[in-house]
Design a protein that fits this description.
single chain; 298 residues; alpha/beta; Rossmann fold; eight-stranded mixed sheet; Alpha/beta hydrolase-fold protein; AB_hydrolase_fold; hydrolase; hydrolase activity
């Protein structure tokens, strides 16, 4: 048998190496996909597994009003607010929108998440009218902190009365939010209960199953996490219509999946391709808006 040439030998070696690399890559993909290795969110984004990006509707937004007030519950901080509400001869129900980490009251309007335009499109399609009202909570994860800053009390004791003074019907109350605000909506909904809240719609809520996994600053310490986690407290939302959405390429997906599984009756929404980003949040916004409107006006 002829002796293989050096070129042939190199080619075979290259093929073997390439095959081994493919096997290693496949193994790494599986390990990342099963969260045995970090990087699942990045991998899904790079491989185009997050699904199509949502787009803000090209329609005129509902009218918005903005202002500020000094919050005693937040230690004298001046906080901003924005209300997006269609004209109405009667008091409208209201969904309070809680922003994510790094956001503020403007997150839900304009070119950010565009809820003022999604709400307008909802109304054009015959959806029930309601208002969306957002307020600044800082990066404090929407619960009372050890330094006395209490954005949850600010919402209940200061912002809701402001909304009532401006003609909105706070007895028909909804809560919504994305990321940190998604957690905040679930937490505050459980604190207030069905006597105060009709509907909660959480988008990619920032949830963790253990204190050791939490982001720095989300909770003061392990005791604060145990006091304020929403996992294991799903019964606090009994009697409230609940929707929870999260992308499968989102780093919070495992905890959100565990949270959804903790309900006796599965909440609306679900897990579908998407990242922890505006592309997914805008894609999910029409369903969130429709869910809020349906249950606020039922």
């Amino acid at each position: 048998m002829p002796t293989p040439s050096r070129a042939t030998t190199i080619t075979r070696r290259a093929l073997l190496a390439a095959g081994g690399s493919l096997l290693l890559a496949g193994g790494a993909f599986e390990a990342v996909d099963q969260r045995l290795l970090p990087g699942r969110s990045t991998m899904y984004r790079v491989l185009g597994l997050d699904g199509p990006a949502g787009r803000i509707p090209d329609v005129p937004p509902v009218p918005s009003t903005s202002g500020t007030f000094v919050s005693a519950a937040r230690g004298g901080r001046t906080v901003g607010w924005t209300i997006a509400a269609p004209p109405s001869a009667t008091p409208l129900p209201v969904a309070v929108a809680l922003h994510g980490y790094g956001g503020d009251h403007r997150t839900f309007s304009g070119n950010a998440l565009g809820y003022d335009r999604f709400l307008a499109a909802h109304l054009r399609s015959g959806g029930a009218p309601f208002a969306v009202a957002a307020v600044d909570g800082g990066n404090r994860y929407w619960h009372r902190r050890a330094d006395g800053d209490d954005p949850a009390s600010m919402v209940v004791d200061e912002f809701l009365p402001l909304l009532g003074d401006r003609g909105l019907d706070t007895t028909r109350l909804g809560l919504t939010g994305n990321s940190m605000g998604g957690y905040g909506a679930l937490h505050l909904g459980g604190v207030l209960g069905a006597e105060r809240v009709r509907v909660v719609a959480a988008l990619s809520p920032a949830l963790w199953t253990t204190a050791g996994d939490t982001a720095r600053g989300a909770f003061d310490d392990a005791a604060d996490f145990r006091t304020n986690t929403v996992l294991g407290r799903q019964r606090a939302l009994d009697g409230i219509a609940v929707r929870v959405d999260c992308g499968t390429g989102d780093g919070f997906e495992p905890a959100v999946r565990a949270y959804r599984q903790g309900f006796r009756v599965a909440p609306a929404g679900g897990l579908e391709p998407g990242g922890h980003d505006r592309a997914y949040w805008r894609r999910t916004a029409p369903d969130q808006i429709a869910f809020l409107g349906r249950h606020l006006t039922a």
